[in-house]
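Why does residue order matter? Because the sequence determines the fold. Keep that principle in mind as you read this record.
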Amino acid sequence: MKRICVLMGGTSNERDVSITSGENVAKALASLGRKYEVLPVRLDADNLDALPAGVDACYIALHGGWGENGGVQAALDARGIPYTGPGAAASHICMDKIATKKALAAAGVPVAAWSVATSATTPAPPCGYPCVVKAPRDGSSVGVYLVKNEADFAHAVAEARRIDREKFGGDGEALVEEYISGREATVGIVGRNALPAVEISAPGGWYGFDAKYNSDETRYTFPDDPFVPEMQRIALAAFDAAECRGVARVDFRVAPDGRMCVLELNTSPGMTGHSLVPKAAAKAGMDFAALCDAILQAATHD
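Structure:
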């Protein structure tokens, strides 16, 4: 692979973050000297019309929407162009939080209690309040609400369903999930290697969009706790349950009693200054350019 296209931008709510990720990846790959001819490409539509001819492989730095739901993966499969990250089917599962819950539960991977709110029914939270309400097919904490009482529950469900309906059609659904107090952590997978776990301590205890991308107060540490090897094992089990390959990030909550639950998988992890997979890779002794290179070297297509 010599002529490499870095795909970024796209049409999702995460466009700006994707552009930052893509520019960082393009600079990192270009820093490897003559190993690659790097072609940064910003997509403005859900198609590959902007893709240059003669591309040997694509690094997918798209986040959310068509870039992460299997759309761009299927388009690249049709052209026979290798790309980074999981294939179309796995990407589709992981972008849909409801489908992810089903796949993980079927494989025995621990998940928080959950239910689905549709146009026909708005069930009470499975474990009372507080609970978490999520738009099930968006990313970067868009359409995610921490609900502390019954008065706010119907509004959060309506908003999550509205986001889902406007972006993906149908009547709209909302994922209603048990809120697990305690610690938040994530494990990156590169190849089939689990990176060091990263613990996240966000202002106010809520790791939302601002805490992820705008806050300098969010702290990231590397716990040296007995639960870490088990968390890495569970992360690989989740990676396999969703039939992922290449790279993914597996997000967890850890309850005070040590119970660990997988929240979701991200198949196109961020590559910004705040992103967690680069931080974990650095802890493991892999600099940013080496990480991008390793992810690219695993590129393939279906």
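Residues 43 and 50 are 7 Å apart (CA to CA).
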